[in-house]
């Protein structure tokens, strides 16, 4: 666990309620997810598609734990802005350049909350005729949505709190924290 002083140095003095997942816990889970993805796709082309910005750290760690050939691309969807609740409006601001047709797609998301983002992106991406389409989410607030079979790979079932760090932000702050903390 990081010391209080090292947390406050990184946040500029803003204290967090608690550290929910520390670096070691996250690393072990990411290794498990990478192994599971490697096993789930024995054949075919695999495209790991990171949803920016929230997945940037997770994606970087995850692909290094997948022991098979793969390609990486990104997409950008609009998100919460400065608030902490979902508006339900998801727009695509950057579209992957890579061809999706015939490939196994794993969409990498930092956290599933209401599930709106993932649902809309799944609908959009499935029009491009991938061989398969699944979501890998580091965190899933399972209490906030109906079961989602597309979310095939889940790191942690997250509490209904506002989490920051390891890519997750609040109004663009805190993405760089190496751990995941409860801000509320
Ligand atoms: P959904 O569309 O309601 O599932 O929200 C998913 C998106 O909201 C994620 O990609 C995050 O960017 C953001 N989000 C949801 N919950 C949190 C949180 O606890 N901390 C930071 N961002 C969150
Ligand atoms: Mg966000």
Number of helical regions: 4
Number of strands: 9
The overall average pLDDT, rounded, is 93
In the sheet with the most strands, the strands line up as 4-3-2-5-6-7
**How is the biggest beta sheet arranged?**
6 strands, mixed
Distance between the termini: 19 Å
Percentage of residues in DSSP E strands: 25-35%
Catalogue the unreliable spans.
none
| Portion of residues within helices | 10-25%
Q: In sequence order, what are the helices and strands, one letter per element?
A: HEHEHEEEHEEEE
User: What general form does the structure show?
Assistant: globular
The Cα radius of gyration reads 16 Å
Distinct ligands, ions and cofactors found in the model: inosinic acid, magnesium ion
Secondary-structure content class: alpha/beta
What's the structural blueprint in terms of helices and strands?
Blueprint (H helix, E strand, L loop, with lengths): L3 H8 L6 E4 L1 H18 L5 E7 L3 H8 L7 E7 L14 E3 L9 E9 L3 H11 L5 E9 L10 E7 L5 E2 L15 E3 L2
Helix pairs in contact: 2-3
The structure holds inosinic acid and magnesium ion.
The site of magnesium ion (MG) has 4 residues, from loops.
